[in-house]
Write a structure and sequence with these properties.
This protein is mainly α. Among the domains are: 85 residues, no CATH class; 55 residues, no CATH class. Helices cover 68% and strands 10% of the residues. It is built from 12 helices and 5 strands. A 3-stranded antiparallel beta sheet has the order 1-3-2. Strands 4-5 form a two-stranded antiparallel sheet. The chain is flat. 28% of the residues are buried.
Amino acid sequence: MRKIITIMLCCIALNAMGQTAEQFKEKYDRQVRAVGSAGVGVEYILDKWSEAYPDDCDMLEGRFNYYLAKSRSEEIQPMKVERYLGQKPVLSLKDSLGLPVHYFTVPMFNDSLFRLSQQYIDRAIELEPEALIYRFDKITALAAYEKESPDMAATAMLNLIDYDAAVKPAWTYAGEPVSREDFISSVQEYCYLFYRTGSPNSYESFRILSERMLKQDPKNTLFLNNLGAYWQVAKRDNKKAAKYYKKVLKLNPGDESATTNLAIIEKSKLKK
């Protein structure tokens, strides 16, 4: 019986080693669709995949997703704010004094497992520095991990912007070429993520990233509007905000965001 089991295990090993990287990815994708990034059987496939192709970036991303999912949990926590990380509460009650208490789903992370996930995605970035998918994987994970203080996520974004300016890489995403417009839109999505988080630190990250993008393109109305929103919402300084919105309208008189926000500022003046 032991001999039969040994022969079966050897056949399985030989079959795994004989698979192409694409076959491993197909098997991995099927398993993840069925059980999730850290479900039963996923680690086994990743182990065999890494034995055969230790520098396969799809495998490294799979390892990243596995340890990120393993590291993450959630807690329901009471807070006396109406929004947390840009989200509405899952439940609202009142305390003994009749004051509102809001309950939010808060992401929690195991530090050691999270660090392990970062090691794998860093290796993928090292092997394929022009593949945006791995850089975005890292930044999105950092932003979730840091919550109200996305300092590492913002630094990673700044490094990406600086790399783009210095190297002018031929960016790709999932193997497809990325246009300049798509790259800018992606940066704006992360700016919006920091803005929506709504904490003092995240607002500063929002401002810094917008200013860094304007160094490359001083007439980009997306990031000029961002700075208007920063002064209007984060700093409550309508005068400075209006200056940025007026710059936008000089460049694009039909800009809806600048027009709307400038109208709000003018309306607030009339109420005083």
